Amino acid sequence: MVDAILLTAMISYLGWGVYSARLVSGTAAILSTWFLNRQWTFRDRASDNKIRESSTYLVINCCGAAINFSVYGIGVYLSSTLLEYPVLAAAMGAITAMLFNFTASKRYAFTG
């Protein structure tokens, strides 16, 4: 939601480009999800070593962001519909990256 709201606002109301807006909205989403995952999703697996946990989470999510942005970029490049409605391309990228991020975070970042 953070990603979609910021992306839409920056493109529709602030006149940002579809790629620069996506970088900002994606970064805000990564910060939000670390906090939410630590508090709810992986609460029982959260580590006392927050530096290791957050560093690992950051690396995983940078990989996920590359996956996310690639799916998004290919979508808006190849599809006039997705270029017209970039939030749909953002959703496609987010879902793909979410699967990667969840699996990798559970296995490597939130190890308790």
How would you sum up this structure, described in words?
The chain is mainly α and 112 residues long. It has one domain. The protein has 5 helices and no strands. The longest helix is centred in the middle third of the chain and has 29 residues, at 50-78. The two termini are 28 Å apart.
Principal-axis shape: elongated
From N to C, what is the helix and strand string? Answer: HHHHH
β-strand number: 0
Q: What fraction, in percent, of the residue positions are helical? A: over 70%
List segments where confidence is low: pLDDT < 50 over at least 5 consecutive residues.
Answer: none
* Alpha-carbon Rg, integer: 15 Å
Oligomer status: single chain
Mean pLDDT: 91
Overall SS class: mainly alpha
Termini separation comes to 28 Å
Instruction: Compute the number of structural domains.
Output: 1
**What's the total helix number?**
5
The biggest sheet amounts to:
none
What fraction strand? under 5%
